[in-house]
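FAQ: What does a multi-protein file look like?

Like this. Sequence, then C-alpha cells, then the next protein.
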Amino acid sequence: MLMDYEKRMRRIPTCLECGDKIRYGRTDKKFCCDDCRMKYNNNIHKEVRTYRRKVMSMLARNYEILSGLVGTGLDSADLQDLELKGFYPGIVTSYRRIGKHDVFCCFDIKYIMTRTRIYSVMKIKNFQ
C-alpha cells in the first residue's frame, strides 16, 4: 500500500486593511500588523461613534434650553420659538403616555409636548 502524500500549498491570506500578503503567523490571521487591525476596526465603528456623538450633542442642546426655561421660572413655551433656539423636539431620553398627555424627559427635566407648545416644564426631584 502506497501512501500518497500531497504537498499542500498554504493559501497566503491578505490583510483586510492594506491588502498586503501575510506571510507569517497563523493561517487564519486577518491583519499584517496591529496598526492595520486598529485602523480597520476604527473605520468600522466610526459611523456609530459619529452618530452617538451627534445625538448626545442634540440632547445637550435640548437640556441647555430646557434648563434655561426652568431657571427663569417659565413652565411653558412655544415650540417654534424653541426650535429657533436650536431645540430638537424628537430627541429625548424617555417618553411616556400618561392619560391624554405625552410626557417627555430630557435627563432630569420632564415636560408635556403638543404639536405647537411645550408646558409643565420641571426638574424631576430626587432624580438618580
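And here is the next protein:
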Amino acid sequence: MSGRWLVKSEPDAFSWDQQVANGVEPWTGVRNHSAKLNLAAMRLGDMAFFYHSNIGKEIVGVVEVVREAYPDPSAEPGSPWVCVDMKAVCPLPRPVTLAQIKADPALEGFALIRLSRLSVVPVSVEHWAHLCDLGGLKG
C-alpha cells in the first residue's frame, strides 16, 4: 500500500485550480523540519489530499507524488529544504471542511487536527478511506 498524506496550500498563493491547470507542480516552500521529513518520506505513487488552508479550510482534491524528494529550488542553495512533484488526480465531488473533520468522531487523532500548524502530514489508511467517503470519492 502506498503512503497517504495531506498537503496544505493557501489558495491565494497556490490553489487547486492552479494545480489542475499546471498538471505536474513541484511542492515547494516547505520550511518546517517535520514537514520536510514527511516530504522526504513520500514515494512515487503516494497520494495526498490537497487542502486549502486559511481561506476555505477544506480538502478539495487528490494529488499523486510523481517525483520523490529533491532540493527545493525556491530555497537557498545548500539548505536542507526539499520538495516533491505532485500531479492532480481528481477533485473531491464534495469538499470536506475542517469543521466537518473536527466534528467527526471517526477522525479523532487525525494529524490535520493534532498537528494543525504542519503543512504536510501523514494520513492513516482508515482516515483516508473515511475522508474519501465524506468527499464522495469511490475506490
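Q: Is there any per-entry metadata?
A: Some entries carry free-text notes. For the entry above: Residues 42 and 119 are 14 Å apart (CA to CA).
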